[in-house]
């Protein structure tokens, strides 16, 4: 009987200790979201990723003239407030678009980049976006559409692009369209901050469970 009592107390203490350690780890850890950067080739996805790194971290991103068309996957990590964002930037050439869906299941949100200065490719962007949004593995994923290359005089505004894409058809999807320039950084912070806010509240995040990353010191 005494032995049983001793074991019970011991395991209780060990139990307390474990709970305490877990809570401390939890307090200092940060929520981590996965964001997919999609869009047709030459839209400016990788240039955007590099700009994100330089805006949100001390690291200088690659300058535009050193960026080559993406064949595999580029990963970028940044922190916004108390949130870690992991970006997955994939190649947009037609032959590479079939790879996109391998990343859908684990993505908390999508950024879809469009070259707003190239109307001849809007149709291609529109059908690529529609295909992405039809995929069942992306159900409920918030969408940020970026009308990129606003530094170019010929670029169309976010409103014009929205009309063309007919985004009203999106029904229940949480989305926003933002005019940005991956060269000078215009609109990037606004877009990312909106995305963090909606991911924190989204049902999809609840469903996926935002992964808790280790505390960074
Ligand atoms: N003027 C201007 N050019 C841009 C901007 N963003 C990207 N570019 C240019 O657009 C071209 C394509 O940029 P990338 O970032 O390689 O495009 P991508 O979408 O990653 O292309 P893929 O990897 O082939 O899918 C490059 O010449 C960039 O310098 C921008 O905001 N303004
Ligand atoms: Mg690229």
Gap between N and C termini = 47 Å
User: pLDDT under 50 segments (min length 5)?
Assistant: 1-12, 17-26, 212-217
The rounded Rg comes to 21 Å
| Structural domain tally | 1
Instruction: Say which molecules are bound, naming each kind only once.
Output: guanosine-5'-triphosphate, magnesium ion
Instruction: Kindly state the percentage of residues in helix.
Output: 25-40%
The CATH homologous superfamily? P-loop containing nucleotide triphosphate hydrolases
The CATH class label is Alpha Beta
For this structure, the CATH topology is Rossmann fold
H/E topology pattern:
HEHEEEHEHEHHE
Q: What's the oligomerization state?
A: single chain
Which geometry do the CA atoms define? globular
CATH architecture: 3-Layer(aba) Sandwich
InterPro entries: P-loop_NTPase, Small_GTP-bd, Small_GTPase_ARF, Small_GTPase_ARF/SAR
GO cellular component, one term: Golgi apparatus
Protein name: Small GTP-binding domain containing protein
Binding site for Mg(2+): 46, 70
């Amino acid at each position: 009987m005494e032995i049983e009592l001793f074991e019970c107390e011991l395991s209780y203490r060990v139990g307390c200790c474990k709970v305490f350690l877990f809570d401390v780890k939890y307090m200092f850890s940060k929520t981590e979201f996965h964001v997919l950067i999609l869009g047709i080739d030459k839209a400016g996805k990788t240039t955007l990723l590099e700009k994100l790194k330089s805006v949100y971290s001390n690291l200088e991103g690659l300058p535009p003239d050193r960026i080559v068309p993406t064949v595999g996957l580029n990963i970028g990590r940044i922190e916004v407030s108390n949130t870690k964002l992991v970006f997955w930037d994939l190649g947009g050439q037609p032959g590479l678009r079939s790879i996109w869906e391998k990343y859908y299941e684990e993505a908390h949100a999508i950024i879809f980049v469009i070259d707003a200065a190239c109307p001849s490719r809007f149709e291609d962007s529109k059908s690529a976006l529609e295909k992405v949004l039809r995929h069942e593995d992306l159900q409920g994923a918030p969408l940020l559409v970026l009308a990129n290359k606003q530094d170019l005089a010929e670029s169309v505004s976010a409103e014009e692009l929205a009309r063309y894409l007919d985004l009203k058809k999106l029904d229940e999807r949480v989305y926003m369209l933002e005019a940005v320039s991956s060269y000078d950084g215009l609109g990037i912070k606004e877009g990312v901050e909106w995305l963090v806010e909606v991911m924190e509240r989204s049902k999809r995040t609840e469903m996926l469970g935002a992964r808790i990353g280790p505390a960074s010191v």
